[in-house]
């Protein structure tokens, strides 16, 4: 993996970095990225998305939780690109927090959700990002996200421990 700045990534490169697959892969293209700083990616929102069948059939709106997930996937891409590594089947990126999430406008079929994520800090394995999603230059959502990258084995061992251990 190269850390050359200001590169684009197509869907094949994105799939090599993220474990997500349809219908939960929510990043279609990376427009630009700079290691240790920021990334800009897009999600093309189409009426064919499965979630529009139930959210809401009479007025389709992309669920807020999926917009946050799209920002988190963009943040994970930035982390892997910054570290200069491709995750293996044992790597898992976990959310550890979402702060100050605000939804400013709905995202509908036909929209292109532009996701801008910047690294605020990295400390003790926790990555904190400022994330903004916009459509046609208007902010649709914003949040501060915190994630960590763990091995699947470590994560499952800590999950199986009784509380307080």
Automatic annotation (TrEMBL):
Catalysed reactions listed for this entry: a (3R)-hydroxyacyl-[ACP] = a (2E)-enoyl-[ACP] + H2O
UniProt keyword Amino-acid biosynthesis, yes or no: no
Gene Ontology MF: a single term: (3R)-hydroxyacyl-[acyl-carrier-protein] dehydratase activity
Organism domain of life: Bacteria
Enzyme Commission code: 4.2.1.59
Pfam families for this protein: FabA
UniProt-listed GO biological process terms: fatty acid biosynthetic process; lipid A biosynthetic process
Entry keyword set: Cytoplasm, Lipid A biosynthesis, Lipid biosynthesis, Lipid metabolism, Lyase
A single GO cellular-component term on record: cytoplasm
Active site annotation, chain numbering: 55
UniProt subcellular location: Cytoplasm
Keyword Lipid metabolism appears in the UniProt entry: yes
UniProt xrefs under NCBIfam families: fabZ (TIGR01750), PRK00006.1 (NF000582)
Protein function: Involved in unsaturated fatty acids biosynthesis. Catalyzes the dehydration of short chain beta-hydroxyacyl-ACPs and long chain saturated and unsaturated beta-hydroxyacyl-ACPs.
Protein family: Belongs to the thioester dehydratase family. FabZ subfamily.
Name of the molecule in the record: 3-hydroxyacyl-[acyl-carrier-protein] dehydratase FabZ
Origin species: Janthinobacterium psychrotolerans
